[in-house]
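Quick review question:
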């Protein structure tokens, strides 16, 4: 249902317009001051606003309405705004129409003319919404990627676009970044993007997988060790922090770091100082730290396995990567990247998008390697990817064409979150948009 915001300091006007629009099946939000209007537009979905031009007693200049108009346009540049004017503000209203206001109506207004204007403006907005959004996203991606190094990351989904935008934004700073997400979701690739677009691009970029090292060796790996510091240490060892001095250190699976190593890591993050194992000589480095984890560190903190003060040192900015099943728009582009110039059957596309991919992009890449080896030529089917064992119930769900009632019910259950509804029916966001438009369902 379309939602209209009415802004007027006169309670009688609010009541009259509210009744008019509710009788014609519109939702209505009311604001009696510019501040209330700004908050509503900032935090609610509003399809059209109708605003008065004056809000203070004995004021007829229209300057308050002019200021409000520009404030609302700053929050939502695409919001249609109809101005309600007295004859004294008519000239200003005309100037605001030239500046982008959708229409103006003089008080007292004509109900029929107002309803026609509202219906036309909302219909026009809906007609242009999808094409404008798609064009804007493609243009933003083109502009954004023009000067950015994406390190071979393949994506199409809005979720990954947001993660990449954040990575590029924080790349220019020196703050610590924590990248979270399941195994195989692309955490190391995002770390590479941050490094490649930072001012440290030509400085060392040292990687450490804390999850692949025994607890007894992690401290020596990070901070170095003198000869004889531990069994088997026959010579002096330079740690990764020393190797990364002046550059970036990427600590993968940081949740596996033992508490003793966490204490030393906290110190070096705070002061830049540390000692090699077996040494009393304090060394100082200047290193930017990017860390990553697939663990729920807040749960580890509650269980006493991870230091809370270290968590907040590492997590100045967090970039969370969704699972592949949460960004199905990326699946086919990734397959086309792993298997260039190979055709997919419709059954293969459906099976690929329906699969849950618990191993994320890494699992998808392995499935593509399998298909390429077992069938080096010809069209690829679901069986070539090893996806023939998909549960019958899941297959039936994802091959089912949802009715209008089912779509409406799903939209209600998922509170209008398109990604959740698309996953429920095993289709891409674009495919869901087409079905919502076909059935005339407002999204």
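Suggested answer, residue by residue:
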């Amino acid at each position: 249902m379309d939602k209209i915001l009415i802004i007027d300091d006169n309670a009688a006007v609010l009541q009259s317009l509210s009744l008019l629009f509710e009788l014609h099946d519109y939702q209505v939000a009311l604001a009696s001051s510019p501040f209330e209007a700004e908050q509503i537009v900032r935090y609610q979905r509003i399809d059209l606003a109708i605003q008065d031009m004056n809000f203070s007693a004995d004021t007829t200049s229209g300057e308050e309405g002019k200021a409000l108009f520009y404030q609302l346009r700053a929050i939502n540049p695409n919001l249609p705004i109809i101005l309600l004017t007295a004859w004294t503000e008519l000239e200003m209203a005309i100037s605001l129409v030239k500046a982008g206001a959708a229409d103006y109506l003089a008080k007292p207004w004509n109900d029929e003319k107002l309803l026609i204007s509202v219906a036309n403006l909302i219909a026009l907005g809906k007609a242009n919404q999808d094409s404008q959004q798609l064009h804007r996203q493609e243009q933003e991606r083109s502009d954004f990627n023009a000067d950015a190094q994406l390190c071979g990351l393949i994506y199409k989904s809005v979720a990954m676009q947001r993660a990449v935008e954040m990575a590029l934004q924080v790349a220019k700073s020196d703050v610590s970044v924590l990248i979270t997400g399941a195994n195989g979701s692309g955490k190391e690739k995002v770390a590479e993007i941050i490094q490649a677009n930072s001012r440290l691009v030509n400085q060392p970029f040292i990687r450490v997988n804390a999850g692949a090292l025994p607890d007894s060796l992690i401290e020596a790996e990070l901070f170095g060790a003198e000869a004889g510091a531990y069994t088997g240490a026959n010579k002096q060892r330079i740690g990764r922090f020393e190797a990364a001095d002046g550059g970036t250190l990427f600590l993968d699976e940081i949740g596996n770091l033992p508490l003793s190593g966490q204490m030393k890591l906290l110190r070096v993050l705070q002061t830049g100082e540390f000692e090699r194992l077996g040494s009393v000589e304090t060394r100082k480095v200047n290193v930017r730290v990017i860390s990553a984890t697939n663990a729920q560190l807040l749960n580890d903190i509650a269980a006493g396995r991870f230091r809370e003060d270290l968590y907040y040192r590492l997590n100045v900015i967090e970039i969370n990567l969704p699972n592949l099943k949460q960004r199905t728009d990326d699946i086919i582009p990734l397959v086309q990247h792993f298997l260039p110039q190979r055709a997919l059957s419709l059954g293969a596309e459906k099976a690929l998008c329906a699969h849950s991919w618990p191993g994320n992009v890494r699992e998808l890449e392995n499935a593509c390697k399998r298909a390429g080896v077992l069938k080096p030529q010809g069209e690829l089917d679901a069986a070539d990817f090893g996806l023939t064992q998909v549960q019958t119930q899941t297959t039936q769900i994802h091959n089912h064409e949802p009715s209008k009632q089912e779509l409406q019910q799903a939209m209600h259950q998922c509170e209008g979150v398109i990604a959740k509804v698309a996953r429920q029916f095993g289709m891409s966001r674009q495919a869901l948009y087409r079905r919502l438009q076909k059935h005339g369902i407002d999204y």
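Why it works: The domain at 3-126 is CATH 3.40.50.2300 (Rossmann fold). The chain has three domains: 3-126, 158-320, 326-438.
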